[in-house]
Amino acid sequence: MGSNRFLKLALMALLALAPMQAGAALAAPKAVNPVDTEREASVLLSDTVTWMEPTTRLMAEDSDLLVEIVDLVSEAMEPSSREAAAGLADRLAAVDQRLAALKAAAAALPPFPANLEARYRTLGPEANPQIEGFKAMPGLARGLLDQTEAYLEDVRPHLLKAAAGDEDSQMVLAQKSVLAMAVVLKSENAFIDVSMGMMSPADHPQLALAKSIKTSNEAWIIAVEFLGEMLGGSDEADPVAAGKAMKARIGAARAQARLIEPRAKRMSSRLSASLSDGPLKTSLVSAMASFGESAEVELAILDQMDKLAEQLTEGVVDPDSEIWTFPGMEELVNRRLALQQQRAAVFQQK
């Protein structure tokens, strides 16, 4: 990349925008040459996300499998018959088969290719965090599957008993179904941790966004684990302490969310002034413009969570209250994902 440090900035910005999005591969160069043009940067990115595709797909399938297991738990808690219990056994066997297939696929995930690593290293030390993050991804995918398997084994002894009408097992599953959300959020945070290590420069708006999402997840985990403890009859389930802990994480997340838009505007100005006109510049500037809405979405999510935190700090606990369902949260999270995907489309610009 030679002296064009702003081409490096563009490449690092692209990586930060969506380090795991898959795109069509371009032909990889036969020799390891310095990456010093926009075209070579695009080839490197395309080759990298193509290598990442099996890992990306596996993580998505793991998430789907966890949702299916939670569905089994919910089904087992409902009043049921012997026939329904038999059907649950068949579904459980199918889940076991699917998990085994995913674990086999995870074991076969390829390491980060030496050629890609060599090409990244021509970018200089700025590329080291990305290289280490890519190397960590297959192991992260395997770890997420291990968590899903552990959750399945935790609920397995109670599933058929609950489906057959055992009230004690139904109560246990009620608690564990709540705690499944904590498993999902912790898995997401594990990925965010790796992704944040790959983001550069330090004032990139995506880094502030990632920190805000991770911290709001931590607040959500506090609420979920409190509810799980309460349903489990724990004497240590303290709503006031949970509410205060939530509010601390919400405040930290809100501070990060407020950094997103000003950072995006600064990054956009730097890229506009430093890159020549063309598809790369247009795509990056467009991506930066979308961060303003992302900040609004994150703040709206935090406002929803703050309502529950307020109730808990007042000692008010009603698991049947609508507030525990976070009305409107699904729409906000879907918009969060849509904006991320919109920025990830930068990779598909050829």
Structure description:
This protein has 350 residues and is an all-alpha fold. It has two domains: 1-201; 202-350. Helices cover 77% and strands 0% of the residues. The protein is built from eleven helices and no strands. The chain is globular, with a radius of gyration of 23 Å. The chain starts with a helix and ends in a 6-residue tail after the last helix. The relative contact order is 0.11.
Secondary structure layout:
Elements: H1 5-17, H2 38-77, H3 82-107, H4 114-121, H5 128-163, H6 167-198, H7 205-231, H8 239-274, H9 279-289, H10 291-313, H11 329-344
In percent, how much strand structure appears in the residues?
A: under 5%
Radius of gyration, CA atoms, in whole angstroms = 23 Å
Summarize model confidence as the mean pLDDT.
81
Extract low-pLDDT stretches: 1-12, 18-32
Measured as a percent range, the helix fraction is: over 70%
How many separate domains? 2
Q: Describe the global form.
A: globular
The biggest sheet amounts to: none
Write a compact overview of the structure shown.
The protein is mainly alpha-helical and 350 residues long. It has helices at residues 5-17, 38-77, 82-107, 114-121, 128-163, 167-198, 205-231, 239-274, 279-289, 291-313, 329-344.
